[in-house]
Design a protein that fits this description.
Length: about 375
């Protein structure tokens, strides 16, 4: 696709029907570990305005741990996982109570959704998340999402809401992603570094990643810093979703497409939500090793992976799971949703469709991975 101008990207954001807004802990809480109701209310006012003009807004809100640690007697954000889980259990309630109240001033309802990594990996849970979000939006509510921190452990967590917000933008087929933080824009280096310059437009986030010096969090409550925000902007751009990054006090102008913060252009056309999920969220459970011919066909982008072109199957998976498609050198070519269980596949390998039908029956005369379920990597 042609690279859009900054004006075009801002206009696309202004015209967005469905917007995912992500806000970081430091924009909602005080360093003492309590909510900052004034700033939270200001954010709600900006979102409510868009909602009341007919926009569909999903809010991905951090802040559970940062809003809870003060009440539990900690001086600073704890580092122990169990402490964090306890703080999140307390803080998430406080956060939602405040949101509930603030949105009620505008006659708007909110709906809480707490997500774990597995909800975005497993196809059925993913569909559940999507259905609930869509219904909430159809009913006029503002879904408010956070990771389910009280039950997530270090091994199985997103750990940051930046990347989660980009996945949510895919799930709800958003027209724009707005990342709100404690810095007004992306800079050429962490703003604490002398000489760092504000960037107002990123036409290609993958190029920017090579040129911009991104650092970790600048506050004592944030987690991912600019690294995870750039990753979120990259997922959005690759998914065809324009994004803007700015400080929370710029939420209103950012959603209106005003020239605040940093705008990121989409670098692809929009794909289907399912393909985007395969590309970004689905975790491969095994591997199909393609021969040279099948590798070329898959790389071409328009072919299904047939059993005739597969040399080996690795791993233990069920039909519908995601798998890697590798070439003989072990390089990943694509990710796809496989049509058969791993134990069914060895008898199918090397056989063409007619042979599959004759020897194994009609139900086996299908591609191992259909092209609609396959995404190049
Ligand atoms: N190149 C950069 N441009 C802007 N900010 C950066 C950059 N590199 C690192 N940062 C830091 O990222 C911080 C925002 O990330 P974080 O603290 O995780 O916020 P949040 O809690 O909103 O998610 C900024 O305050 C800033 O200190
Ligand atoms: N889920 C955690 C926040 C994780 C996170 O991404 O924090 P932040 O970097 O402040 O957006 C919480 O609610 O405390």
């Amino acid at each position: 696709m042609n690279t859009p101008s900054q004006t075009q990207v801002r206009r696309a954001i202004a015209e967005a029907q469905t917007i995912v807004v992500k806000v970081g802990s430091s924009s909602l809480t005080k360093p003492s570990g309590h909510l900052d109701p004034e700033r939270l209310n200001a954010l709600v006012a900006a979102i409510a305005r868009v909602r009341l003009m007919g926009g569909r807004v999903v809010l991905v809100s951090s802040g559970a741990i940062a809003a809870g640690f003060g009440s539990l007697g900690f001086d600073a954000r704890p580092t122990d996982v169990a402490d964090q889980q306890a703080c999140a259990a307390v803080g998430q309630g406080l956060l939602m109570a405040q949101y509930e109240n603030a949105f009620a001033h505008y006659g708007l309802r909110v709906g809480q959704i707490l997500i774990t990594v597995s909800d975005t990996i497993a196809p059925q849970q993913y569909r559940n998340v999507r259905r609930t979000l869509e219904r909430l939006l159809d009913l006029g509510a503002v879904p408010i999402i956070n990771e389910n921190d009280s039950l997530a452990s270090n091994e199985i967590r997103f750990g940051d809401n930046d990347r989660l917000s980009a996945l949510i933008a895919n799930i709800v087929v958003a027209d724009a992603l707005v990342l709100l933080t404690d810095v007004d824009a992306l800079y050429t280096a962490p703003p604490s570094e002398p000489g760092s310059k504000r960037i107002s437009y990123v036409p290609n986030v993958e190029d920017a990643l090579a040129n911009v010096q991104v650092g970790g969090t600048g506050s004592n409550v944030g987690t991912g810093g600019m690294v995870t925000k750039m990753e979120a902007a990259r997922v959005a751009a690759v998914s065809g979703i324009p994004a803007v990054l700015t400080c929370a006090s710029n939420a209103g102008p950012a959603m209106m497409g005003d020239p605040v913060g940093t705008a990121f252009a989409p670098i692809n056309d929009r794909g289907s939500s399912r393909r985007l999920w395969i590309g970004f969220a689905a975790h491969p459970q095994g591997t199909l090793v393609a021969d040279a011919g099948a590798s070329n066909a898959v790389r071409g982008g328009a072919a299904s992976l047939l059993a005739a072109g597969v040399l080996e199957v690795k791993g233990d998976f069920a039909a519908g799971d995601a798998v890697w498609i590798d070439n003989e050198a072990g390089e990943h070519l694509a990710k796809g949703l496989v049509g058969f269980d791993s134990e069914e596949i060895p008898q199918m390998l090397g056989r063409n469709t007619a042979q599959l039908k004759r020897f194994l029956g009609e139900e086996y005369a299908h591609p191992l991975v259909h092209r609609d379920n396959l995404v190049l990597v």
